[in-house]
Amino acid sequence: MDTISSYMTSDHHRCDELFSQAEAAASGKDWGTIATGLQGFLDSMHHHFKMEEEVLFPAFEEHTGMSMGPTQVMRMEHVQMRELFDAMSDAVKQQDRDEFLGQAETLLVMMQQHNMKEEQMLYLMADRALAGEMEAVLQQMRAVGA
Amino acid sequence: MKLEAGLSFSQAPPIRVPFRFFLSAPLFGLLAALLALWYGPSLMDSRWQPSVLALTHLMTLGFLGMAMVGAMMQMLPVVAGSPVAHPVGVARTVHVLLLPGVLLLAGGFLFGVHWPMRIAMVLLGSGFTVFAVAVGLSLKRASAANPTVVGMRFAVGSLVVTVALGLTLASNYGWDWWLIERVRLTNLHLTWGLLGWIGLLVAGVSYQVVPMFQLTPSYPKLLTRWLTTALFVLLLLWSVVYWLPEGVQEQVTLAVGLTAATIFTVFALVTLRLQLQRRRKQSDVTLLFWRFGMACLLLALALGVAGQVIPALDKMQGDNLVLAFLFIAGFAVSVVNGMLYKIVPFLIWFHLQSLLMGVARVPNMKLIMPEPGMRRQMWLHFAAVPALALSVLWPPLIYPAALLFGASMVLLEINLLNAFRIYQQNAKLAPKGDLSTT
To answer: Shortest CB distance from B6 goes to which of A27, A70, A103?
Structure first.
């Protein structure tokens, strides 16, 4: 049976996979392929953020009463990552490979340290806090559209 | 897991906390290189010479100590979910105590004068105590289910043992009494320092950073669960063995040594294998530094084991100086150097972005730390290490080796300073009042 940890961690891995594809595409010449690769990755990230911001974080905050705690830090880091998404999209529009790879490198480290905090702290806390309604929360997250 | 650890789940400590350490580290490396140039081939005569002791401590306490202390204070909130309390005060105190402490220790060795050694003992002893207590409290709060936390706890434990043994040995130089167990204590001191503090910290941190930077698969669960614990137990065993009767001692020492070497070999091979399986196809300087470091670790282990089994080879390795060059400069410095090239540009970007959100766009990591500069420094280092190791066999080689190593340290410092200048220039754009938060 899935837990919040296992479900969300495997979604992180799915996003990582799409990231590496998008980054690998950037070594090629075709900006159309690069744009498609980036879009696939960004879609997965927006979807992941949506699951957290619309379902998981509010449920967690409601159950623990901690609205200014870890979820707040995670929301702030989402804002930071969204700026990097925009910078990567701009680099593709301007066909600037170095800028794209530099932004990708920055996003990778940002994203990985963010995931680490979630996987080692927040998701485990959520597994406990939401143990009673695990299935319902997972259901709602699965229902989140792209 | 405790809930209060979650409450302090915060952003990174202010940028000056790690940077004061990072910017000091290469200067000690440069001092070590200058010392090597000054003393030249005579360094190879014996490992007990004052010049060799000074040089070793400039590298281990100066370069590695500074970088590792800074990196650990930076990484604890991320990898252990548990920041160090009062990071600014702790960092300032530790830095202000260790910096002159290392210089006075090296001076005490070199000039054989009592007073610098005595002051160095006070400074280093108190500096490391503050660090160990601050980091120890943070690690105590962290979850023990996390193998990196376990590795870091053992590493800090090893640091405490290393410092205690080091102070005992230094008292031998600070006052003219004769420590009968000097050789044994020195061997214990360097084993706890190199395999315990450095080896266990690198292993524990690798579990997180190797998969993180290159998107490799995770380390096998079995390995992360047992490796650092097994090594720590072996270090304890090895320390006790020294007080067994002479006859048994040799076999037990050999068995413990071989087991520890095997475990480290497994660690290095698994790391290299994971890096081969990385999903990220971009190769980068950090990856190359780590591969080079792991190769040096494997070579050091192979030579170490061979030296144990074949005494003639041990002699040829010049009192284990080859091992020291391979382990310290080849393995530890490479890994730390590679890490700095990820941590430093990321931190600058991270802090600038929180300062300048909505005001200005922040340069990306590759603009903060440009690839060509990192590569030039990397090649200097890759040339310096084999030259250093071979200079044990052919001592005049120490001159070009030390020049290469010194040049690499200068370039590293320049790269770090250039990146830091970008931080300072961009931070000026921040709305007034925000600077206090970074």
So the answer is: A70
Give the whole-angstrom CA distance, residue B312 versus residue B352: 57
Residue with tokens 């997250």: A141
Q: Six-digit token pair at B394?
A: 């052919």
pLDDT value at position B311? 72
Cα A104 to Cα A126: distance, rounded to the nearest angstrom: 29
pTM for the model stands at 0.92
pLDDT, greater one: B313 or B352 = B352
For residue B213, the model assigns a pLDDT of 87
Is the pLDDT confidence value at B5 over 50? no
**Residue B319 above 70 pLDDT?**
no
- Cα B223 from Cα B268, distance rounded (Å): 12
Q: Which long-range contacts (CB under 8 A, 24 or more apart) does B93-96 make?
A: B93/B127, B93/B130, B94/B69, B94/B127, B94/B128, B94/B130, B94/B131, B94/B134, B95/B20, B95/B21, B95/B24, B95/B66
* Whether A96 contacts chain B with CB within 8 A: no
* Confidence (pLDDT) at B9: 43
Q: Is B213 in contact with A66 (Cβ distance < 8 A)?
A: no
Taking contacts as CB-CB distances below 8 angstroms, the residues of chain B near A73 are: 9-11
**H/E element holding B101?**
helix B87-111
CA distances from B297 to B262, B306, B324, B329, B335 (A): 12, 14, 11, 10, 10
Q: List CB contacts of B119: < 8 A, sequence separation 6 or more.
A: B100, B101, B104
Decide which of B196 and A67 is more confident: B196
- CATH of residue B77's domain is 1.20.210.10
Chain B residues inside the 8 Å CB shell of A101: 282, 366
Residue B2 lies in a domain: no
Chain A residues in contact with B342 (beta carbon < 8 A): 109
Domain assignment of residue B54, given as a range = 11-426
Structural domain contains residue B437: no
> In terms of Cα–Cα distance, which of B325, B395, B399 is closest to B37?
B399
- pLDDT of B3 > 60? The answer is no
Structure tokens at A26: 């950037």
Cβ–Cβ below 8 Å for A109 and B346:
yes
CATH architecture group of domain A4-142: Up-down Bundle (1.20)
Residue B75 in domain: yes
Of B11, B208, B367, the CB nearest to A116: B208
Q: What are the tens digits of pLDDT across the range B164-180?
A: 999 999 998 888 777 77
Taking the C-alpha atoms of residue B26 and residue B406, their distance in angstroms, rounded to an integer, is 9
| Residue range B209-235: mean pLDDT, rounded | 94
SS (H, E, C) B151-170: HHHHHHHHHHHHHHHHHHHH
What domain count does chain B have?
1
Indicate the residue type of A77: E
> CA nearest A34: which of A47, A44, A21?
A21
